[in-house]
Amino acid sequence: MLRCLNAGESHGRGLMAVVEGVPSGLPITAEAINSDLTRRQGGYGRGGRMRIEKDRIEFICGVRKGTTLGNPLGLLIWNKDWENWKDIMSSEPGPPSTERVVTRPRPGHADLVGAIKYGHQDIRNVLEKASARETAIRVAIGGVAKSLLAQFDMQVVSYTMNIGGIAASSPSDPLAAYQEAEQSEVRCHDPEAAKKMIERIRGAKHKGDSLGGIFEVVVTNPPIGLGTYAQWDRRLSARLAMAAMSIQAMKGVEIGMGFESARRYGSEVHDDIYFDQIAGQFIRKSNNAGGLEGGITNGQSIVVRVAMKPIATLYKPKDSVDISTKEPFKATVERSDICTVPAAGVVGEAVIAYEMANALIEKFGGDSLGEMKRNFEAYQEYVRSF
Which contiguous run of DSSP H or E holds residue 195? Predict the structure, then answer.
C-alpha cells in the first residue's frame, strides 16, 4: 500500500514529502505535476502569496530518467518567500524571534487550540504548519497518484459547484464540465453562475470578508471491486470522506446523491441493476450512489462533493483575546485570500487520487507497473465472465 509523510512550514525553506509503495516502471515527470501546482495557485479571489511563489516540484530520489524505481519517492517544493523569513524562521539555536510574533488567535483557525495543545506562546509556531500552504505538497503527492491511475484509464477531475450561495447547474458530463471549468477564473463549468460567483467574491473583498463554497470531484472509469465492506476503516467511501475532510477548512462531504438521499424515498435513490447482453456486463442507468456501494466501487464514476467554510483570516477581523495579556483585541491579520474554493478543488483531486491509487495498489498489488497491469487484466477478464 501507499504510505506518505509530508513536512515543512509555510514560510520555512520548503515543503517535502516521502511517498512509499509506488511500483517500479511508472512513467512520471515533474512537468505533469507542476501543471497541477499552477492550477492550485490560480482562481479569482487569491491573495498576494500566489504572486510570490511559483511552485515547482523536484524529485530528490526514487525516479530515474522519468521512471519510478520502486524505491520511496522524495518530493521537494522550495518556498521562494523563505528569503524574507530566514531570520525569523531559522532552525539555528538562538533567542526567540521578536519579529512577526503572533499572540492574537483567529476565530475559526487552529491558532488557539494549537497553541494550548503544544504549549506555544507564539502562535506562529501553529499557523506555519496549519496553513493551507501545506496543500502544495499534497497536490504534488496527488500528481504521483494521478500518474498511476492514468495507466489504468482513470482520470480525476473537479469543478466548482457553489461559491457563497451562488450555485452552478449539475453537469451531465463530468469530463466536459471539467474542460469548461478550466477556462473559468472560478473553475466553474456554468458561465452564468461563474459571473455571479466573481461578483460575490468582489463584494466580499470590498467588505473585508471571505467566502466558502462547494466543489465536486469525479473519478472516471474505476474498476468494480476497489475497497471492501469487510472492515469499517477499509471501506473506500470512508477513506475518501476522510481524505476530503483532511483538507484545511473543509466542513462537509457527500458521495453521490448524498444528503439529498435522506429526503427521498428509497425507490428514488437506489440505482436499478441491468445486464447488457451485448456487452456482457452489469450496468446501471443512474448513479445516485456516486460509484460506491457497501464501501466498494461498482464501476460507475465516483462522485464526491466537498463543502469549504470561508477562510478564517479576515481583513475585517473578528473579536479575539490576546493569549499573553488576556485583553480583548481584533484577531491577527495574516496575508490572505478572499476565496480559495477554485484552488480547493485541485487539492480535492489530489487527495481523492491518492486514496484511489492506494485502493488500486491494494487490490492489484505488484512490485512493478507491469505486474500490476497483468493482475488488473486478469481481474477484468474475471469480471467480464462473472
Answer: helix 191-206
Can you give the residue range of the structural domain that contains 326? 3-256+291-384
Domain contains 282: no
What residue type is assigned to position 141 of the chain?
I
Instruction: State how far the Cα of 354 lies from the Cα of 340, in Å rounded to an integer.
Output: 21
* Parallel/antiparallel/unpaired status of strands 302-308 and 213-220: antiparallel
pLDDT tens for each residue of 135-166: 999 999 999 999 999 999 999 999 999 999 99
Full 3-state SS string of 10-42? CCCCEEEEEEECCCECCECCHHHHHHHHHHHHC
Q: State the Cα–Cα distance between residues 245 and 239, nearest whole angstrom.
A: 10
Residue 200 lies in a domain: yes
Residue 83's CATH number: 3.60.150.10
Rounded Cα distance between 248 and 114, Å, is 14
**Signed CA dihedral, 183, 189, 194, 197: sign only:** negative
pTM exceeds 0.85 for this model: yes
> What's the domain count of the chain?
1
Instruction: Give the least confident one: 27-36, 190-199, 208-217, 312-321.
Output: 312-321
CB-count burial class (<10 Å; 0-12, 13-18, 19+) for 232? exposed
Report helix, strand or coil for 283.
strand
**d(Cα 306, Cα 298) in Å, to the nearest integer?**
21
Across the chain, the runs of DSSP E, i.e. the strands, are 3-7, 14-20, 58-61, 63-64, 67-68, 73-78, 155-163, 166-167, 213-220, 250-255, 274-276, 281-283, 292-293, 296-297, 302-308, 319-321, 328-330
Which position has the grid cell 487484466?
Answer: 377
Q: Which three cell numbers stand for residue 54?
A: 511559483
Q: Is residue 375 part of a domain?
A: yes
